[in-house]
Amino acid sequence: MKKVTMTDIAKIAGVSIKTVSRVINNSNAVKEETREKVLKVIKEQGYQVNLLAKGLRKKQTNTIIVFIDKHSGGYWSIWHNEIVQEIIKEAKKEGYKTIISPSSGVGVLDDDTDGFYLLKSGMADGAIIFDNIENDIRIKYLKENDIPFVIVGKDMDYNDTCYVDLDNYQAGYIGGKHLIEKGYKKICFMLGNKGFVVNKERTRGFEDACNEVECVQAQIIYDTTNMETAYKNAIKVLETNKPDAFFISGDERALGVYRAIKEKGLTIPKDVAVLGIDNIPLCDYIYPSLSSIDQPKKKFGQHCIDILVKLINSNDKITKRVFIKPRLTVREST
Questions:
Q1: CATH ID of 63-166+298-326, from 2.60.40.2550, 3.40.718.10, 1.10.150.130, 3.40.50.2300
Q2: Pfam families in the record, alphabetically (predicted)?
Q3: Largest CA distance in the chain
Q4: Strands 126-130 and 63-69: what pairing?
Q5: Burial class of residue 59 (count of CB atoms within 10 Å of its CB; 0-12, 13-18, 19+)
Q6: Does the model's pTM come out above 0.90?
């Protein structure tokens, strides 16, 4: 069976090849009536765009890779999911496809299922990296190979990279300050991987807030990576050194803490307050509703794609760093 070409589509639809190309590339320079007619012919004829050939001709694939740390097989949280959705929306507006790939700052998978294989093969134009660590091997590789990339997080190793990040020092600081101003004196701060830059910055901010006031006991627990570990860590803390407030890096992990508090016969916030970070929709629907520090997901998506597209399409060296200001949303839990 003869393979259908763009020329065939143009003849059947009664339009130019250029018009067919515009429809395929979702150009606005096509009347809606014409677009529908061409799309109908494409569907009827079973025409498929050869994306690789198209990319080779343009020397650009209009594809970006989003790398997210494997998190011991858990991959991502609700927060990751919400920001990735915003990245996909913004990328689509610019005409880019998005591929999501697991990765790790300490090593990459050397096979054709890993997103780095696509980058090495020239089958993607750039990357966005989540969950960076110091001496991150992914960042080193991208820099050495002149591949455009943006980090979601603060780069502690290079001064010429591009990143978009919440001011995580401030997130830790305003969280600690809020709890202290509410009268809480024994605060347990739970975070994930100690190696992640984000957690180092949040810890530093929290400790500075606590050090400004006398008689505040601060306890920091790392490796609280999901609801299960949050629950287990909270049970242990409540049995050995009961705090009067929990501060949790990641709202969904707060569900584990809520359960631990309830099992111990305590109430929120009368006996123990709970404060989260992320301000995901879940916060409004658990009881008591969860106070949280907001990370504006839409802003993350917009800045990441705006910077990456400029990097991809510019021959000049660009260094842009965006800090997004955190905002406290107070609800019933504090």
A1: 3.40.50.2300
A2: LacI, Peripla_BP_3
A3: 81
A4: parallel
A5: exposed
A6: no
